[in-house]
Amino acid sequence: MDAKPQYIVQPLGKQDRAAFHCGNELLDKYFLERASRDVRENLSAVFVLLSVSAPDAVLGYYTLSTLQIDTGDIPDELRKRTGRYKNVGAILIGRLAVAKEHAGKGLGEILLMDALKKSLDSTKNIAAFAVVVDAIDEKAAAFYRKYGFMRLRENRLFLPMKTIQQLFESQGFVYL
After folding, report:
1. Residue 29 main-chain phi, psi, to 5 deg
2. What pLDDT, on a 0 to 100 scale, did the predictor assign at position 176?
3. How far apart are CA 30 and CA 38, in angstroms?
4. 45, 11 contact by CB (below 8 A)
């Protein structure tokens, strides 16, 4: 018997964002001041993690948008998959944050897996070569590398969509 999920991820709506603080001023400020506008202007999709037992309190969030990556930045062994294209489409996880009081509970992984699943699902309609993240610091970069992300340049990392597909097809992978 499957256990009922404790968490839900849904698009940003009327949730109470004022109480959300992750401890990073840039991520907090974005979520409190800019996220709604980005959604309204179709600049990014914002998704929030909520507890089933307290669905008004935001535990974390992430954003998705599109971008192009220069194939010259991709490692040689993967670049051959891109043929003669100079740029390929990708999905950007622009921001990902967990409320400070919930840090260390695995919620970052839930957010990341949800973002990867939504990205993979979107490729049924619009192709994307990879998911890209801009790690805000070295701790964030280490978090993403733990899931197989590779460095493109500086703080920009990527995970090929084929790898994401294999991740979700693999035995024993649990998703919300």
Report:
1. -60, -45
2. 46
3. 10
4. yes
Handedness of CA 99, 24, 48, 156 (dihedral sign): negative
Query: How is residue 62 written in tokens?
Result: 């992430």
Q: Which of 78, 87, 92 is closest to 46 using CA atoms? A: 92
CA 68 – CA 89 distance, rounded (Å):
5
The domain segmentation of the chain, as residue ranges, is 7-169
Helix segments in the chain, DSSP class H: 25-29, 35-40, 76-79, 107-122, 138-145, 161-169
Mean pLDDT by 10 residues, the chain (176 residues): 76 92 96 96 97 91 96 89 92 97 95 96 95 95 96 93 90 51
Considering the domain delimited by 7-169, tell me its CATH architecture: 3-Layer(aba) Sandwich (3.40)
Residue 83 Rama label (left phi>0; alpha psi -120 to 50; beta)? left
18 burial class (0-12, 13-18, 19+ CB within 10 angstroms)?
exposed
Could you give the 3-state DSSP secondary structure of residue 60? strand
